[in-house]
Amino acid sequence: MSGGSKYIRQPIVSVLGHVDHGKTSLLDFIRGTAVVSRESGAITQHIGATEVPIDAIYKVCGDLLKRKKFSLPGLLFIDTPGHHAFTTLRARGGSLADLAVLVVDINDGFKPQTYESIKILKQYKTPFIIAANKIDSISGWQKSNNVAKKRIEEQRPNVKTIFKEKLYQMIGTISEQKLNSDLYFNISDFRKTIGIIPISAKTGEGIPELLMILVGLAQRFLEDQLHIESGPAKGSVLEVKEEVGLGTTIDAIIYNGTIRNDDKIVIGTNSEPVVTRIKALLKPKPLDEIRDPRERFDRVSEVHAACGVKISSPDLENVVPGAPIRIAKDNLEDVIKEIKSQTKVDFELDEQGIIIKADTIGSLEALIKESRDKGIKIRKAEIGGVSKREIVEADATLDPLNKLIFAFNIKILPEAKEELANTNVTVFNEDVIYTIMENYDEWIEIKKAEIERERRQDFIHPGMVKFLPEYVFRVSHPAVIGVRVLSGRIKTGLKLMKDDGRVVGSIKGIQSENKPVEEAIQGQEVAISIEGVTVGRQIKGEDILYTDLPASDAKKLREMDVLNIDEKDVLNKIFEIKRKTDKFWGM
User: Fold this and answer.
1) pTM
2) I want to staple 343 with a disulfide (CB 3.0 to 4.6 A). Which of 126, 201, 268, 550 is the partner?
3) Alpha-carbon distance 222 to 354, whole Å?
4) At what angle do helices 551-560 and 565-579 cross, to 10 degrees?
5) Structural domains in the chain plus CATH codes
6) Which of 18, 46, 83, 461 is catalytic?
């Protein structure tokens, strides 16, 4: 491959889906099948990816691809977690993947990570198909080597009914996401309708059809963008790892051009890009040799896109997952500038707000976007684990709604865990952004109600009760009567007055359903004991009584706007009563 010449690379296919829905099993089956059916050269394992050559695909698909010829060299499956393949890797201004397979357990249906995957796929406009997995676990399912249409028809009537019910449920759920879908053999235009392929990653049913659809879609719709230059490589960091004997290494996907074992490379970090020279390019042994314990990797002199590779170099400690990788020739300054622009998470921080931590640049961006959409202010957003310093910082903030850390797909460091136990800080540590946001919605409601409760309890609140004449339990010493709280609240210790301003006595106790309570609120009917009154003299049935507020509390309650409409009405009535005898009361 001479510099500047073009060639077709294999499309990069990411496999996404909810945990336990069968992503790994699907890839394991593809790997195993492709190894078994390999011809000369056949399957290669890369770092974070598995290359399935077109010859192996022909062999697996058999009659399905009879008389069909493809110019693609094969498919490169990314076998890192789904979110890494997208939010992590921002090649070409979008996701790294050219195509995607969304794996959904046909019995389990859509789960949080499924919805999150769909959102990512729509955001990056990535073409995808759906693998409806675990058909073998449908009760009574009979395995068949036929194509999907015949395989379904061959099932017993009750099994066919169960399958169709589950399928239509899935199609309905996808429709709620404003997308059309159907079984792949019913589709005439894959640009308008998402193909569903019923599969079993356990028995292998449907896997040849899945490979056939992927190769067909790539050939038909992606061929132009798969023509790439064989010049200097462009890539993206998947993971930063410590390897015995090698030190800090990076696992990377190269999606364009060629990288050689003596190239000078520039890689993004949290601050200034690192410029370093490659010590070694490493690839795992081919899959059929992977059990050889003596050597895990082969040293190679160069690799071409698209592929996964491990890079050993000095100064990789501060590299962040998701960062771009570029080869520097005579254009070092330009490359550094490009890397900086692609590594920077571009958003304004707020003076006050929560802290966000994530595993990669792309994850951080996704979490920031979701938070901003909810109007959440962000004071700090960085890649990496949650440290003790961040727990201290979050706890130091005055606003209790900001004592919060979003931690996506990362660890809380041991020191931070110890510190966390002694603070009021809440950490949402999840590997699904959707779950973090759900947890936040629940937490913020509870927290706001708690704060409101505390704020309201700082002052004596207005309350208005009606003496229920049918409930006189004791006439005096103390009087015990039944009342309905018409508005606001009453608490033990508060004085009660009539509408002429005369104080009739203090509430000594409140009982609800024969149990003592501290307070009663609007709508409740309770028994109260009042010291200093006699029923029939100072108070009579049907009387309306009001809480006697201190003037300073009444003034603050008006200024603070913490009362609901009914409580404001009662407060205004109390002001009227008090100002009959003191026109400056509460001013």
Assistant:
1) 0.69
2) 268
3) 42
4) 140
5) 6-227 (3.40.50.300), 234-343 (2.40.30.10), 354-456 (3.40.50.10050), 463-579 (2.40.30.10)
6) 83
